Amino acid sequence: MTSSTTDYLATARRVIETEAQALTALGVALDDSFAAAVEMILGAKGRVIVSGMGKSGHIGKKIAATLASTGTPAQFVHPAEASHGDLGMVTADDVALVLSFSGETPELANLIAHTRRFAIPLIGVAGRADSTLLRQADVALLLPSAPEACGTGIVPTTSTTMTLALGDALALALMEHREFTPEHFRVFHPGGKLGARLSRVADLMHNDLPLVPMDMPMSEALLVMSGKGFGVLGVTENGRLVGIITDGDLRRHMAGLLTHTTGEVMTRGPRTIDPDSLAEKAVAVMQDRKITALFVVKGEVPVGLIHIHDCLRAGVV
After folding, report:
1. Pairing relation of β-strands 232-237 and 240-246?
2. What pLDDT is stored for residue 116 in this prediction?
């Protein structure tokens, strides 16, 4: 028997709809236990130790990674390895976040017992209120009853989706409480496209600036412009950036250019940017103004220059 494209799409839509309904139910079911879990994690001096077996373990690794990258130190500990020495990773300063939809996963027994023996705060996430995990937990997060998307109830689908969403909710509630900013986020994500997008202007700007005074003859200013290689000059007065000279300004004054001073050729009031701004903002300004470089200023004092090519090399664009 062959399936049609219509059959595939119908299955996909049924799965997504089933899981979407479960997520809605999860949101409705959240109560003071969720707030208690957040407070428990905030009160911990150590890390969040996340653990789970099988599919719950895979979800747990993602939750631990999300917590760690948003300002809450976290580590995944495999329950089977915990029984063979890795319990030493779990200290009295930590809080344990243990995941098991049934709440009866045998491999979790030693970890749960370890938290009880050493008074380590335990947050349990499961789908049965009367399960061993939730009965032993200091804070019990009960997943609402919802059918697995597989239709047979044997493949963890809806349950793992709910667990993952609950982990995201915990991480972001903690993140917002800690007032975690994009700058903090950049510290933990220095690589890849995300790290590039969170780069500051100060990280990419040049410090060897093409600056000239207002009264410099253009014959001398052109030498500075060609020597620096940015295709632009900043014009200063008493240390302040008051104007800019670009290729366009040179073309507009081509007749008798060498008889002029920089102050006569410059364009006043150039667009600038702060060194603490994100590089993405600099790119947006350059694209909007159809320019290739921006002077970086503190107050009105030039401290750097950022070029569109620097942003391209860093992967911001």
Report:
1. antiparallel
2. 95
- The CATH fold assigned to 5-180 is Rossmann fold (3.40.50)
CA distance 280 to 245: 24
The ranges of the chain annotated as CATH 3.40.50.10490 are 5-180
Q: What's the predicted TM-score (pTM) here? A: 0.66
Least confident of 2-16, 35-49, 102-116, 185-199: 185-199
Question: What is the number of other CB atoms lying within 10 angstroms of the CB of residue 142?
Answer: 19
Q: What is the 3-state secondary structure (H, E, C) of the chain?
A: CCCCHHHHHHHHHHHHHHHHHHHHHHHHHCCHHHHHHHHHHHHCCCCEEEEECCHHHHHHHHHHHHHHHCCCCEEECCHHHHCCCHHHHCCCCCEEEEECCCCCCHHHHHHHHHHHHCCCCEEEEECCCCCHHHHHCCEEEECCCCCCCCCCCCCCCHHHHHHHHHHHHHHHHHHHHCCCCHHHHHHHCCCHHHHHHCCEHHHHCECCCCEEECCCEHHHHHHHHHHHCCCEEEEEECCEEEEEEEHHHHHHCCCCHHHCEHHHHCEECCCEECCCCEHHHHHHHHHHHCCCEEEEEECCEEEEEEEHHHHHHHCCC
In CATH terms, the superfamily for domain 201-314 is CBS-domain (3.10.580.10)
Q: What does the alpha-carbon distance between residue 79 and residue 37 come to, in Å, rounded to a whole number? A: 21
Tens of pLDDT, residue by residue over 267-309, are 998 999 999 888 888 999 999 988 889 999 998 899 999 998 8
Q: CATH 3.10.580.10 spans which residues of the chain?
A: 201-314
